[in-house]
Amino acid sequence: MQIEYVKEKVMEGPRPGFPRQYGPDRLDHQPGIPLFPQEATRDLVTICLLVAMMFFLSAFVTPFLGPARSPQLSELIVPDWYLLFSWGLLKVADIFPQFTIGAGTPLKTEFSAAFWGDLLSGIPVIFLLVLPFIDRGRESRPAKAPFRSAFGIAFLIAWIFTSSLYSIREVVAQRWTAPNGTALIPDGTMKWFFVIPPVLVGLTSYLALRRLAFAPMRRYLVPYVLILTAIVVAQAGAIAANPAALGAAQAFFPEILIALAIVVVPTVLTAFFLFRAPESTARKVSTWAGALGLLAFMGFYGAVAYLDRPTALGWVLSVLWPNMNTLVFMPIFAIGTAWLGTRRPYSTYEYLLNECYQCGKCHTVCPVTKVEDDALGGLNLVYNTFKKQHDGVPLWTCLACDACSAVCPLDIQYSDYILEERRKVNAAMAADGGRRE
Predict the structure, then answer these.
(1) What is the pLDDT of residues 329-346, one digit of tens each?
(2) pLDDT in tens, 96-126
(3) What burial letters (b/e) apply to 327-349, b meaning 16+ CB within 10 Å?
(4) Cα distance between residue 331 and residue 129, in whole Å
(5) How far apart are CA 282 and CA 343, in angstroms?
(6) pTM of the complete model
(7) For the chain, what is the largest distance between any 2 Cα atoms, rounded to a whole number of angstroms?
């Protein structure tokens, strides 16, 4: 009967914004304001007003520039923090080939470092501009779109962070130096810093989101962690097998071996148990390996810096930091990915209910909220039951009529969760001899 009420829209009244059809087979689109021309025109008018205000202020309120800058006042001129990523992209653009097309003609085009830097700087902005035209589906949580979410996390966050750090490479090279005066992080290492950390962040985010979406990730997780572990072991083995290549740092070879062991052992243990043991055991090993590895690093650095040989710390860092993409980041991502990829995912109903973005349609059509005072203050009975934001009453006042499921824009079957929770309570009562605490 409640479903018939919903189909006839008896409970909705003249409320706008509700679909004309219900259920997963509905064909209509929910009413709303189109992006073009309504929203686009409004945004264009707003942009024109802001630009006009900027022109007015720059023309009639000209700021005082002051005298020319003295070289002694600042060692490096950088733009504001929100433009550091573009500054870094301009600096790294010299790795691209530079050539000229159409020399001696009006169509002469120079593919210089400035051109490549401008092109790289426009990638994040272009992505944001085209995103409303690409993402035209229904609303979804990150776990429902793992590739898109991982791409956004990797390139809109990690890539911008790494490029911002590269923009101050002169400061890093000047202040982060080894005891012999050389830079701890060479420019070549920082250029690879553009590629390796964003790729690792993207792959780890994708595996974690897929796991959060109740998907088995072992066939993707094991090769990824094993490859990272193999790279770490190969890099550490190459350093340990050729101590003569360390130069002046060879005098501190025992400390360097201890640092390499702290990097390699937790990573190898995590990869081995991930490959051979059940997921629950692998998750425990990755947790303990990461925690103990971090404590070992802190204890080792503290002991070397304050108790043993203070100058050894600089030489140890002079070996690790030039290889930070392999000996620092890859162990962290291998252990972290193993932990995220083997974590306990949500149950099926918990995962579905986490898609709720609180549009309020279920609360509007729920027949219990019309008569139950306790239910009027919350969003809806099932959501409050899922979030444990209730006193136990909504779990039993729900009629399981599925009116909320019929109007849910994400097609979530709320009543299934209510019935499952009731079965758990009844099973617990039967195990306790029919008594309910």
Answers:
(1) 999 999 999 998 887 765
(2) 888 888 877 888 888 888 888 888 888 777 8
(3) bebbbbbbbbbbbbbbeebeeeb
(4) 36
(5) 10
(6) 0.70
(7) 95
Picking from 337, 123, 348, the residue whose alpha carbon sits closest to that of residue 224 is 337
Domain boundaries, the chain: 77-215, 217-345, 348-431
- Count how many residues are written for the chain: 437
Distance between first and last Cα of the chain: 34
CA dihedral defined by 334, 339, 340, 344, rounded to 10 degrees? 160
Residue 188 neighbours by CB under 8 Å, 6+ apart: none
Please give the CATH number for the structural domain made up of 348-431: 1.10.1060.10
207-224 pLDDT, tens digit per residue, is 988 887 767 778 889 999
Token readout for 95 is 């790795």
Nearest to 206 by CA among 166, 253, 247, 152: 152
> Are 406 and 429 spatial neighbours (Cβ–Cβ below 8 Å)?
no
Q: Cα angle vertex 162, ends 156, 165, to 5°? A: 130
Rounded percentage of the chain residues whose pLDDT exceeds 90: 18
Q: Tokens 């979530």, residue? A: 412
